[in-house]
Structure formats: C-alpha cells, structure tokens
Amino acid sequence: MQRMILLVVLLFSIDVFASTQLSALGQFKKNRSIEYNDVWGYEAPDGKEYALLGVQDGTSIIDVSNPANLKEIKFIPSNRSTWKDIKTFGHYAYVVNESGGGMQILDLSKLPNDVPVAATYTGFTTSHNIYIDEERKLLFAEGNHSEPVRILSLENPLAPRQLSSLGVECHDIYAKDGLLYVSEGGHGTIGIFNYDDPSNPTLVSRFQIRRAGYVHNAWLTEDGRYLMTTEENTGKTMKMFDLADLNNVQQVGEVLAPGKLAHNTHIKGNFAYVAHYGSGLRIYDISNPASMSEVAFWQKTATPGRGFVSAWGAYPFFKSGKILISDIEDGLVVVYHESAARN
Predict the structure, then answer these.
(1) 3-state secondary structure of 68
(2) Pairing relationship of beta strands 293-298 and 20-21 according to DSSP bridges
(3) How many of the other CB atoms lie within 10 Å of CB of 314?
C-alpha cells in the first residue's frame, strides 16, 4: 500500500511539474540567406495582429492574425546590422540598429495596405536597444560612452526631442512608473533611476549582481516588487530580485534552461517568456519568485543548440495568446500558450 501511495504521489508530481512542448502554428522566413534579430508586435484598431521582425538589412511587417497563413505586408530596408531593436508608440514603430542611419519611424496606421517610413530621427545614428514609456510619451535609447542612456520626448511622435542622458555603459533598459531599470552590461550591475523629471533624472539605487556575467536585460513583475534579469554568458542563471528595499536588494530565486544561455526575458502576469537561444522559448511560472518553474517551451531541435543560435527575441503581449519568437536562422515562429491569453 505504501508503495502504491508513493507511486501515485510521484506520478502526480510528474504531471504537475512537466513542461509542455509547444508546436509552431506558423513560420515565416525570407527566401534568401539572411539572419534575423529582435521582434515586437502590434495590434491594429481592427484587431489584426502584426509581427515587426528585425532582419539584418531591414524590418519585415508580417500579418500573424492567421498563423497558418502568415503574410508579409512590407519590408523596410535599413543599414545592415546584426543588432536591431523595435518598439511601438501609438500607431508608430521605432527601429534602431548598430550600423547607422538613425532611428526609423514607421507609420502603422495604413495597415494592412502599406507601412511607410514617416520620418527618420538623426539625433543619434546608432542604438542597441530602446524602450518606450507610452503613458509618459518617453523613449529611452541605449547610447554611447558620453551618453549611456538617452531620454527623448515623443510629444511629437515624428520629431523626438532629447531631454537628457544618464548612467554608465549599458545594454538594455526597462521603464515603469517613473523608474528606469538599466542593465549595465560589463559593470555587473543594475542601475535604478527616477525620471519623474525626465530633464533631470536621478540615481535611486545601484546593486551588484554576485559573480555577474554580462548583465543583459531586466524586466519588472507587474506588481513592481521583483525584477528578473539575464546575463548573456553560458552558465549564468536568470535571477529574480526582491526590490522591497531599494537600499538592500536581495536575490530570491534563479533558473536556467538546459542550453544554459539565456538572452531576453519578458514578463506578462505571473509568467516570464524567455528567448533562450538554443533552448528556444521557455515559459516560467513566476508566481513564487523564489521557486520559478518551467511550464512550457518551444525548441526547434530535439536537443538544445549551443551558443548564439535560434531564439533571439520573444513577444507575448497579444491578448490572443499568440507568442512571437524571432529565430536567428529561421525567421519568425508563432506559438500559442494559454498563459499569454489575457489583456
């Protein structure tokens, strides 16, 4: 009897904690030898959903409303760059790269017929990553040595205006409720800045990640209590930090997929959606930040790929539950998971 009870407990545990393997609902790849980078999404007023897919030499706008029939609406050329980042504000998309040409501003209001380049901002020529506080109409751009993070006003969406700069050398930026969380790359730190006055941002706190790799990106939980971070080095875990006391930030949890090389995390509700290079997309239940557990994954090969391959970016913010994955070699992959099916 005891053995039977133990067996039932083990089977129940396996069922509860098993991670579901997701299948691709649709895939898109341009018919030429080219690599891809980041991805973002846009839902039009008519409910149609679009992927804004970074390609080395441009941006591909793809209708993903029907994943079984993905349709490229427009390809907008850009300077050729391995790195590109894309974010949206209203019906505009802002696109940066690391090879020059400034920041393209794409007009999405004419979808599904066209996506013109409405303007090009040339106040800077390159940027690695950007983030937009839509409520406050502010764009944050990773910068250079003299201006590590630039703050731009989007009061006029077609004519951004720089207000200030802040910080030290960084890689990525996340902003919410007047606080900016800056992943400070080789410094091994996260800098937290107040931008209630965007013309005069101030440092609130800076904390060191123990035995840090390259501090790559960070995303805040929706309640603002915890910050999840990635370090783009093999074997460096994704970490969860408790921000209850900004003068004494504490690590409370960590997790890592089999490929051991995490790239970018994004949080929606109680779940983190991680572009995990050769481990593909990994979805974690983070309702208990001290004990994060994987609930689902998409991986294009039977075993995890090694190194800087496969999943670069992810976008889980459609209400439909569709999740976009940008695959370095194979373009766009669309999957579905119920955890993402919410506002």
Answers:
(1) helix
(2) parallel
(3) 31
